[in-house]
Amino acid sequence: xxxxxxxxxxxxxxxxxxxxxxxxxxxxxxxxxxxxxxxxxxxxxxxxxxxxxxxxxxxxxxxxxxxxxxxxxxxxxxxxxxxxxxxxxxxxxxxxxxx
Length: 99
Prior knowledge:
Umud Fragment, subunit A, 1 helix, 99 residues, 44% strand
């Protein structure tokens, strides 16, 4: 399933800014470090961040794009089941950009 999410906040700026949108798929085969994902975080709710590190156990760390973002340590190690979608494209106004 394909979903569209609107970015709120500047934690992923300059790559993604408030008001931008992302097109994400719930069906993806691989997950790699550097991918942008939609996560249902147990404390922070739905967030869109970049995968920073994937551990041997399959758990992963996230990161934002700027210093105002929550740190990887604050977000903690997360289970793969918290990933709800992988971002395929992002857009500003009428422009689509590949991630």
